[in-house]
Amino acid sequence: MNGIASPGSSDGVELQIERVIVASLEQATVNVRCLRGPVRRGARFDRLRGSAQALDLRLTQTVVYGHRVAHLDTGLTAFVTLRGEGVQALMAGTTASGWQVIQGSNP
After folding, report:
1. Please, what are the averages of pLDDT over each run of 10 residues along the chain (107 residues)?
2. What is the rounded CA–CA span in Å between residue 75 and residue 73?
């Protein structure tokens, strides 16, 4: 096994992007909803659902109701910090445009 979760595997995680605050070219703070978790600190995201866009993002921090937490459970919302390549591809969603979903795996 190569350590990378395939889509649909039990290790796969997904975050729905609600709002993006880009702090730099390689880091963003993002308001998300966890669609498949738990998502742990250090999780790596390598794809956008329904897109060929390549990502190499690592989750470095999760904040829920003002408190840093080690993981985010399915159904909860949080502010997360993502670092790496592909931050510029992240966009806020709307009801009309739909929401982006990033997919990856826990460490």
Report:
1. 41 93 88 97 95 93 96 97 94 85 96
2. 6
Q: How buried is residue 3: exposed, middle or buried, by Cβ count under 10 Å (0-12/13-18/19+)?
A: exposed
Find out whether 59 and 27 touch, Cβ atoms under 8 Å.
Answer: no
DSSP label of 25 = T
Residue 30 token pair: 């993002």
- Give the position of tokens 């880009």: 22
pLDDT of amino acid 48: 94
Task: Calculate the CA 34 to chain-centre distance.
Answer: 8
**pTM of this structure:** 0.85
d(CA 31, CA 28): 10
83 and 89 in contact (C-beta within 8 Å)?
no
Distance, CA of 2 to CA of 100 (rounded, Å): 26
Residue pair 35/52 in contact by the 8 Å Cβ criterion: no
